[in-house]
Amino acid sequence: MLKTKPDSAIMKKFSVITPCFNAEKLIHETISSVTEQTVFRDGSAVLEYILCDGGSKDDTVKVAESLLQQARNCEYRIISAADNGMYDALSKGLQLVTGDYCSYINAGDLYDARAFEVLTEVFSDAGIQWVTGLRVLINESSQVVGVRLPFKYKRPFIRKGYYGQLLPFIQQESTIWRSELNRKIDLEYLRTLKYAGDYYLWTRFAGETDLYIVESYLGSFRIHKGQISENRTAYFKERKAFLQPSGLSLILDLPCILYEWLYFFGDYHKAGANKKTMIAYDHQKGNWKRQ
Asked: Whose CB among 156, 196, 197, 245 lies 3.0–4.6 Å from 239's, allowing a Cys bridge?
């Protein structure tokens, strides 16, 4: 199913993918958090929404289509067919992306209402290819239960798999990238993954460029029962196949890993120690800029 509304060639387009299955209780809030972005409501950007449904037996598709039909400055595509899991669905969606910027958000997770407004300004810096924001957690009632500013993400550490084990996770719901980076993804390989497809993407992007941190609430991860991320054993086992071997280099990296304890310090100290990849709001100049 495809629905298109007029857009403008001069406006930037955000492509958002939602892989889902039997998610009628969660999909409404997630889609609304995308379609109600200020940049789409005021017409300063265009949305491309790609819903990849695994053949739901409930009203997921019906709810989604009803919302997307009413969305402003939105073109959308709904695919509903049996698949081999979330990353098979995501792979299908990534093949359809035509926007300038790309992200994916699972049913139940949310974007802040002004997230894409911030991102439009941040990506006006041509040197920034992918970004992540504050790590925000919400509960089943959509209440914020945790917020933390990440410390710098080192590219070699991403590729070796330190994040999520030795260091905190990169939050997928807060991570957005320029669509050109999709060329670095082996979509056929991605579709074979069951648990760690997000981290596979991060390793591919980290092979090209730095991950920047925006000191802003972009997206939030919902903690609820029955989610795939609960199976951490399977997640870490699957990652081993595509990570760079650490070997003895772990010992050589140890001083840098110990430096990452700044993650648990206050935001002021983390921002001050990360002059390379931190993006903060300058209240005097009224804009977002690198530190």
From this structure: 196
